[in-house]
Amino acid sequence: MFAHRIKNLAESPVREILKVIDRPGMISFAGGLPAAKCFPTFDYASLSSRHMQYGPSEGDDKLREQVAQSLCKRGLQVESNQVLILSGSQQGIDLVAKLFVEPGVKVAVEVPTYLAALQAFDLFGAEYRGYSIGEPGIIDSGPGDSKISGTRLTYTIPTFQNPTGHCYSSEQRKTLAAACDATGSILFEDDPYRDLVYSDCDRTPVCAYMQEVNWIYQGSFSKSYAPGLRLGYLACSKTLFPQLVRLKQAADLHSCRLSQQLISALLETHDDRNLIGFYQKRRDNFQEVLQDTFTHLADWKRPDGGLFFWLKLKPAFAMDTRLLLDQSIAQGVAFMPGEAFYPAGTTPQSTLRLNFSHSTPELVRSGLEVLAGIIETAAAGRVQQSNSV
Amino acid sequence: MFAHRIKNLAESPVREILKVIDRPGMISFAGGLPAAKCFPTFDYASLSSRHMQYGPSEGDDKLREQVAQSLCKRGLQVESNQVLILSGSQQGIDLVAKLFVEPGVKVAVEVPTYLAALQAFDLFGAEYRGYSIGEPGIIDSGPGDSKISGTRLTYTIPTFQNPTGHCYSSEQRKTLAAACDATGSILFEDDPYRDLVYSDCDRTPVCAYMQEVNWIYQGSFSKSYAPGLRLGYLACSKTLFPQLVRLKQAADLHSCRLSQQLISALLETHDDRNLIGFYQKRRDNFQEVLQDTFTHLADWKRPDGGLFFWLKLKPAFAMDTRLLLDQSIAQGVAFMPGEAFYPAGTTPQSTLRLNFSHSTPELVRSGLEVLAGIIETAAAGRVQQSNSV
């Protein structure tokens, strides 16, 4: 009865977790939730009846112009007519998947990578070529003979990667762009975390280094502004723009114009230094509490930006972290099992993604203590069980 | 380079027209634009930081409950856990197309029908079985041997249909539901105009008559509230709900929470009698001006609800109305050529869809005079041309 693609439509843990985060008393290390107290003050007085009416699929002109200017400043030379406003950057993944992905198409992805990108690509029948980031390089043996050879699309989150927090070096950025140019794989760069930077890093868009092959770059207003507005944007090679606009129109006509106007007004005045200072303190506190509670349980690297710590359990505590989720939520703590970030069919990874931006320092300590206790108990039970066999 | 589906992604006239309607001085009979002066006053004070945060893919609980109650009142018995909030009802078409449509799948549609539904179905490779509405009946020879036999999905706009304005009778509603039940075709009912009613009509959802086969019913907040908020909803058979939620999540995670809260607050207090009275007057005025300016050019039926007049040019003026659009826009008048509402490959239909809700009476008269003049000139030029041959 359903289209064949629906067999690829797996239940997503994100969905389950988004449902519980609103519950009173829940400590959420799960979603990439910004801290509610950092949401800016929106200028509702700037809204007029104009913003209540239907608008262009491309997005409102002024906002497109503002985005183009911002992209130029970060090193990606685009004109406003290459900018498409999105109903959140998840929509960009849906549109790009529709444009390129069908059964048999190979997509290169970092392993691990953003789980809802996998979900969107899965729906259209993607096959994956996974490449590991950072070690020893993005591509295994040079641009000409890389893991991305034979792929139609390369999906990357180079800056404060989700879930690992890794930020590509300048060298890695250039190498990835060169590999795409050499192999003809279209580069799809997802860059939602770039503004949440706590150390000096090269954050030049990888797309800025592309010479020949087409590319799509996308960003989000969810992280520095507010996710409830559901607003993001993409910019792309001029040849891809007409198709992406048509796909956008067929998907939802255009994005919420209230959200567009509120963000457009804020872009004139918004200063995110307070937000960044606030998140940096939260990251530092999280690191400190992790050292107190998880040093014996897991290894991790303090991220230079973004919203997440990525933990790998030590061999003595290795387990499928998905099996801990129900119990953890029952005890009032939500986290993201690392398995969700790997293409289907991979073995349990003993990894967890923990968001540090959403919870207060007090909640961080009690939440991490609960989580550490659950892992210790699960490991102890396993030892006991194997002893009693 | 593109997925095969992109070859079905035609340029849409809606997109072009949405781009120009904001232009100062443009008289738009094109989109289904509500009158800006009827937009309600939104209660921005009801917004809190809660509505800035990520939320559930299904939509906010309170709004889902309000929608369910409203559907029960109109005769469709659903629970709130069957309600999915959408980023406008265009998104519902995208999700339903993803769920059911792939190359070779037959979709029954009214001919003519909503053009952006055709666009969304086209993308996924639909083949159409068109049925004419109203005359002599929805289905040609009874439920067992109808045009919808062999289709997986039947798409219908039974109430103030887009573009024709037709409202199905009680008998037609029951017949369509029986035909879907008899043939196993899933009923997809699109009902955005139902609240804009100017005469007494049966508006019971066709889905309310379904006995066995699955169904999806969707509605919009764009017409009675404001399209710029981009908010709609669907309700469906319980067995379809989990897949539609997952598709929604992969498409945009969830819909704008500001829009959800603003609509939710309004639903408590909103009285649309003023709006309906206002539109009814605009319809009556439009009818009057049409009689003055188009009686010699076209035939039409005054609609009992909705936003559109549907005109068929008389034989002496028969022409492909798409060819008039550029000139008309250049003269400051946007309209919708009827050809856009027919599946691709059909011959020019000599039809126009004219929206009566958006323009003031003064603009209606000058706009219709311009349009009538363009048609007369085009027909005269043709006569002259054929005389000179």
Question: H/E series of chain A, N to C?
Answer: HEHEHEHEEHEEEHHHEEHEEEH
Structural class of chain A: alpha/beta
CATH-wise, what's the superfamily of the largest domain in chain A?
Type I PLP-dependent aspartate aminotransferase-like (Major domain)
Radius of gyration of chain A: 21 Å
Binned strand content of chain A: 5-15%
Oligomer: homodimer
**Residue share in helices of chain A?**
25-40%
The structural domain count of chain A equals 2
- Distance between the amino and carboxyl termini of chain A: 47 Å
Let me know the number of strands of chain A.
13
Overall pLDDT score of chain A = 91
In short:
Two copies of one chain form a homodimer. Chain A has 389 residues and is an alpha/beta fold. Chain A has ten helices and 13 strands.
Structural overview:
The structure is a homodimer of 389-residue chains. Chain A is 35% helix and 14% strand. Chain A has 2 domains: 4-37 and 273-388, Aspartate Aminotransferase, domain 1 (Alpha-Beta Complex), CATH 3.90.1150.10; 55-269, Type I PLP-dependent aspartate aminotransferase-like (Major domain) (Aspartate Aminotransferase, domain 2). By secondary structure, the first copy, chain A, is α/β, with parallel strands linked by helices. Chain A starts with 12 loop residues before the first helix and ends with a helix. The longest helix of chain A is centred in the last third of the chain and has 28 residues, at 361-388. The first copy, chain A, has helices at 13-20, 61-73, 89-100, 115-123, 170-183, 241-252, 257-269, 273-294, 325-330, 361-388; strands at 27-28, 83-86, 106-110, 127-131, 153-156, 186-190, 215-220, 232-236, 298-299, 308-313, 333-334, 336-337, 351-355. In chain A, the strands form 3 sheets. Chain A has a 7-stranded mixed beta sheet, sandwiched between helices. A 4-stranded antiparallel beta sheet of chain A has the order 9-10-13-12. The interface between A and B is large, with 77 and 77 residues.
